[in-house]
Model the fold of this input.
Amino acid sequence: MKKVVGLLALVFGLALVQPVQAAENQTIAIIDSAIDSSKFTNVVYEVCFTLNTCPNGKTLVDSNGSYSFSEGKGTASVNNFTIKGADHGYNMAKIATVTNPNIKIVFIRISDEKVYDTFSMIRNDGGSMSRALAWVSANSSKLNIKAVSISQSRSNFPVGTCPTDTLFESSVATLKSNNVATFVATGNDSKKNHIGFPACVKGVYSVAGATADGVVVKNSNINNTTSIVSRICANFIGTACLKVQDYRGNMTAMSGTSVATVVAASLAVTKIKDESWDVFVGSLPKAGKYPSLLN
Done:
């Protein structure tokens, strides 16, 4: 699922008070379960990295073994969106477009349809996420990607440690050297001294969830290396979520650090100018307890 000295926080709102930048500067990559791009005009490119089920996937081999890969229109879709977790990526893309209607999305699918009997499709094999970020690192300039949003988290490792993933870590570093930010959800395990992986990886911006007044929500993981606190809804009425249309057409309240992360990435690309991401985050004014960016 970023370590910055001290606890920095970024509280994003929906309304934009600054002039909108050119569309090419508002492209983000979303790495998640799957999407139906026929329902989005904002999706400009699709990629798929899984073990088995990419549409028309090529079988490729790296040092970790074989995997399935596809790119181009329709490759991030699945055959059956009723599979548990399949629509998580759709929801993230929907939140991005509600948050920032001008956003352009490169969507990378990393979840197999029916590989794990006990896991929902929201889970992935781990290697797919790392390969996806490596692909973004190699293609960010060509596709004008300014930020990456990863709403994936696991916290089943000892407090004070972070799992090692050299491919993921090197991709984060390369992206950062090209001034592309990697936003990662801290997780929803209610832990106050422990954030999930890959949010714990050095160089990413870990995103915890906050209410409309900037208070961290109870179920959001957070620790003293957390980079950002972002709103847990696409928008607020007071402290309540506005509902967003899900894949089935139902208006649904969506929250959690998954939402907070894609909200952060979608709005940040409209706010940052010519400075580096570290300068941008570090220069945020304080509002209450945290440095924050408000409407």
Notes: The longest helix spans residues 257-271. The helical segments are 88-99, 127-139, 166-177, 257-271, 277-282. The chain has one domain: 23-291.
